[in-house]
Amino acid sequence: MVFGYFSTTVCPPALIFMGQHQEENERLLKEGLPDDVWFHVDKVPSAHVYLQMPRGITIDTIPEELLDDCCQLVKANSKIGKKMDKATVVYTKRENLKKTKMMDSGEARKSEIRKIRKK
């Protein structure tokens, strides 16, 4: 089941979706909007978190508090990431994720990746 959350760090609250399993991640990949922002703990298995971009906000202007909410959510839902003192979280616009027939369910090639380190 795909989970939905509201971050109240911005007004109006921002909608965040999370998939914990390959099938859920695949669904989010297919149904996500091009401007949604995808988050994942770098180099370890983790949930996929998608931020539905609030009106007037771009990937370059995501408020720090909202960015932190997404990073903490993806880190907390990674078996390995949640045990790390600091985890590197990668994020990019949904339109930068590409799927090929040879890839496993929930897997995608990423481009224009940004990285952030979070406690």
Automatic annotation (TrEMBL):
It comes from Caenorhabditis briggsae. Interacts (via cytoplasmic region) with ILK. It comes from the Eukaryota. The lineage of its organism: Eukaryota, Metazoa, Ecdysozoa, Nematoda, Chromadorea. Residues 5-107 form the NFACT RNA-binding domain. InterPro entries: Jlp2/Ccd25, NFACT_RNA-bd. PANTHER family: COILED-COIL DOMAIN-CONTAINING PROTEIN 25, DUF814-RELATED. Residues 100-119 are annotated as: Disordered. This is Coiled-coil domain-containing protein 25.
